[in-house]
Hints:
It contains 15 helices and 12 strands. The protein has helices at 3-10, 16-41, 46-94, 98-104, 106-147, 149-196, 198-202, 205-259, 267-308, 311-314, 376-383, 406-410, 434-443, 464-478, 494-510; strands at 331-342, 349-361, 365-370, 391-396, 399-400, 413-416, 452-453, 456-457, 482-486, 514-518, 530-535, 538-541. The strands form 3 sheets. It has a 6-stranded mixed β-sheet with strand order 6-9-10-3-11-12, with helices on both faces. The longest helix has 55 residues, at 205-259.
Amino acid sequence: MNLINFIKRESTVSLQSLLVLTLISGIAQGLLLAIINAAAASANYADLNFRYLMMFGLAIAIFIVSKKVALARSFIVTEQVIAKLRIRIGDKLRRSGLVTVERIGKAQVEQRLAQDTLTISQAAGEIVNAVQSAIMIVVCVLYLATLSIPAFVITLGMIAGGISIYLRNQRSINRELQAATVKETEFFISLGHLMDGFKELKVNATKSDDLFEKHFTKICTDTEQVKVRTGLEFVRNFIFSQTFFYVLIAVLVFLLPAFSAAYSDVIVKTTAVILFIVGPLTSLVSSIPIYARASVAVDNIGMLDRWLDTPEAAAERLVTPAKIDFRGFTEIVADEVSFSYFTEGSGAPAFSAGPFKLRVQAGEVLFIVGGNGSGKSTLMKLLTGLYAPQAGALMVDGVRLQPAHYPAYRELFSIVFTDFHLFDRLYGQHDIDEKRLAQLLTRMQLDDKTTFEQGRFTNLNLSTGQKKRLALIIAYLEDRPVLALDEFAADQDPEFRQFFYETLLPELKAAGKTVVAITHDDRYFHCADRVIKMEYGQIQPAA
């Protein structure tokens, strides 16, 4: 989809007024040439010059006002469209399943909603300029027809031929632009590895060198090559357009007078016309690559938007949530539940968890143990409703969960996973008891690290263990029946680790909370009501 069709489709206001203003601006600019030529021809008559001066002043006033309003309105419309687009895709993402979001990837979303929307935003004014220049060129060429029909035919023919060649070359440039956007996305992924894995790379020079040389550098070099090819194509096209202007002037100045004696009388005026439209033609030609980049950006965003509307991606958000409350549950049952991860383009699963049976009783403290890659986190995501079972079913007090039940079911849980995100505000919580919050900060030994002021935490620059404690405080305040913790104690100092297992967990149990925790701390297994062990995606009896 091209940029103009995209804006027409997405805009909530009519673009007719914008088109009319652009049309008026182009006509007014084109008329300036006719007024100047007429005034120059009557330079000996002061009264006529005064009249042309007034006409010139009116034309330039119309040009300035109409173009200013057209540009301003184009920026407003474009930014409204971008905001609407970001909101729509953001809403689709938040209501999609975790599997969908994991498959898309953070880099893909950032590229589309940040860089591609910026490209569209920057193109808005250029497109208005281009349309205005095109209209002005049409007016000037029509004026040229009043001066000399041969000059008009030659100019029209050469412009049509030149644009045809330029657009043919542009098609190959568009393909290179598509390839460049793919490489840019790969670069964002690689940059994410570099930044998110900084600590691991800093302590392992071999790993750092390998990532940098074989992945990061290669992607940067590949991106460079694609962009250089694209840039060289732009240069060739631009030089062609510049050469075309001078060839056109040469034809009208040097060749046409030899075939038309009458043309000699208007050669100065026709040359003035060509010189007058050189600027707008350059602007028009220069806008084509910008328009092409913006259209590629539109296509990229469109692909993401359409993919989010596929049956697979849209399945969860298109379900109407059932009005059901599970908060008073007594038992959650995973009945022969299984889930498999698939490598892109492969029919064979890369890893499978289950089928397994598991009962979680309300008010119990359940530990899940096992080695890395045993399926503990997958089990936790299934239990919390972040993944829907691909086989088997989850049941709550005998009610088999259907897709419509999952939004209400997930409301049972507060989670702190290993890859948790810490928000600086208590989103979703209103009428916050700041006194209790301050007490929790003190109890979690965070009162000297951060405070809660003006609706937000003042400092999130904490150690991993401290961030987990703050996340646990937020989970406390959410006051949900089930607390799901993934290796919460792994980053805590020994003193707080003991406090967590021997003080906090019993308090949570006494308060009627259910705790499901992934842990490796065999020293504290006695703090759980039950311990289950996972190996190779299967639940095993604990040793």
